[in-house]
Design goal:
The complex is a heterodimer of chains A (271) and B (156). With 271 residues, chain A is mostly helical. Chain A has 8 helices and 2 strands, in the order H-E-E-H-H-H-H-H-H-H. Chain A has a two-stranded antiparallel ribbon with strand order 1-2. The longest helix of chain A is centred in the C-terminal third of the chain and has 41 residues. Chain B is built from 2 helices and no strands. Helix content of chain B is 94%, strand content 0%. Chain B has one domain. In chain B, helix 1 packs antiparallel against helix 2. The chains are: A mainly alpha (271), B mainly alpha (156). The interface between A and B is large, with 49 and 32 residues.
Chain lengths: 271, 156
């Protein structure tokens, strides 16, 4: 608890886990018409930064001997390309592989914001005039759900594009139990559950991991505020958790990317 | 944890970012890498080809060398044969020449001997006559004795 102005631990945690909200009154207001400015701005900045960096390298990519920066970008490129190539059997270069690259890099960058020490960064944001600024966009369920929603729409889009409207509807009513009229409701229910559960599990897995990671950092921060032994153990455990978090951050970005590719390739292939 | 407009904003940002990657980031990287892969494959193929042609050239070289050696040996053999032939010929010629010289020398010697004989014969008959003249001095019927001496000279 770096800032001693907090009344209680729950206030400290609540403060760190609440988003910077902007009410969009011009869209009619109400609880839904609220924008988490911190999540959105951080996400956009990180996306622009990371993809811009890769674009900057890609723009001047030469087929000859690559520079070290280009070699690094190509390393990421081939990693994604291999992963997608293993799962998706089609022309991956036209959409799925670049989408996977975007998802992986972007989610990785957003997750990686978790490494920044939360209270020091809060001071820094405070100096910039930003209060209640939550720097990790993926620990906001809106971000992960927004991404999952994007993938969900792509799923439906490719399902219809590849199989045709009729084929897609046929699949919804006739798979997995068969095309008899009597099992149509069961099939529909089954697919409905699938279509609902996919974005939910997709987004909540990432959100849960990032949110829990942040809560543990906050709890360690709370402990560190209790005295000398708290500082010692809080620092050591905080460092340990941060190191372990490197794994979680990369793994969750990887899982999110893989699920995106799996969902999209499932949309391309029939049941 | 409340769902609000942020979700839609993030989804839009996501869509734009994907579009950007699909349009601007992925193609140049893919191009560069595929081009390099092709260049490497071409290079490897060219190296393989070079190796093959080198092998062929080495084989041809060895063949050529062998042939040359054979030809060289043949030529040397021929030259040796020719040389011995020439030597043989020269020997024969020399022998012939020597024989001829010897023969001519012999005939010359014979002639010389004959000539000397003739001369001696003449001188001997003269000497004999003179001697006889001196011994007998007077009672010589020159005509009878000359016939006799000529006969004698002939018998010599």
């Amino acid at each position: 608890m770096a800032d001693s102005s907090y009344e209680s631990p729950s206030e400290y945690i609540g403060h760190h886990l609440s988003n910077n909200e902007v009410h969009l009154d011009f869209l009619g207001g109400g609880p839904f018409m609220t924008l988490h400015l911190d999540s959105f701005v951080m996400a956009v900045l990180l996306g622009m930064f990371s993809m811009g960096l890769i674009w900057f390298v890609a723009r001047k990519a030469s087929a000859g001997v690559p520079t070290k920066t280009q070699a690094f970008v190509e390393l990421i490129f081939s990693f994604i390309d291999d992963q997608v190539g293993n799962i998706f059997h089609g022309n991956r270069h036209s959409f799925v592989a670049p989408a996977a690259l975007t998802v992986f890099i972007w989610v990785l960058m957003m997750n990686a914001m978790d490494f920044l020490p939360i209270d020091i960064m809060a001071k820094f944001y405070g100096m910039l005039g930003l209060y209640e600024w939550k720097a990790v966009p993926t620990s906001d369920v809106n971000t992960t759900f927004g991404l999952a929603l994007g993938v969900w729409f792509l799923m439906i889009y490719f399902g219809i594009k590849v199989k045709g409207m009729g084929g897609w509807l046929h699949e919804i009513f006739c798979a997995p139990f068969g095309s008899s009229v009597w099992v149509w409701p069961a099939n529909f229910l089954f697919n409905l559950i699938e279509y609902v559960s996919k974005p939910l599990s997709h987004s909540l897995r990432l959100f849960g991991n990032m949110y829990a990671g942040e809560v543990i950092f906050l709890l360690l921060g709370l402990w560190a505020a209790t005295g000398v032994s708290g500082i010692i153990f809080g620092s050591i455990l905080g460092a340990g958790w941060a190191i372990f978090h490197i794994l979680i951050v990369v793994l969750q970005a990887y899982i999110f990317m893989m699920l995106t590719v799996v969902y999209l390739s499932m949309a391309h292939e029939g049941h | 944890m409340n769902i609000n407009f942020t979700m839609i904003a993030q989804a839009i940002a996501f869509a734009i970012l994907i579009w950007f990657t699909v349009k601007f980031v992925w193609p140049p990287l893919l191009n560069a890498i595929e081009k390099r892969q092709k260049e490497i494959a071409d290079g490897l193929a060219a190296a393989q080809e070079g190796k093959l042609s080198l092998e062929v050239a080495a084989k041809k070289n060895a063949e050529f060398l062998n042939e040359s050696k054979q030809k060289g040996a043949e030529i040397v053999g021929q030259a040796e044969k020719r040389a011995s032939e020439i030597v043989e010929q020269a020997k024969n010629v020399a022998k012939d020449e020597g024989d001829r010289i010897i023969a001519s020398a012999k005939s010359e010697i014979d002639q010389e001997v004959n000539r000397a004989k003739e001369e001696l014969r003449g001188q001997i008959s003269t000497l004999a006559i003179q001697g006889a003249e001196k011994i007998l001095d007077k009672e010589i019927d020159k005509k009878v004795h000359a016939d006799m001496l000529t006969k004698l000279a002939k018998d010599l």
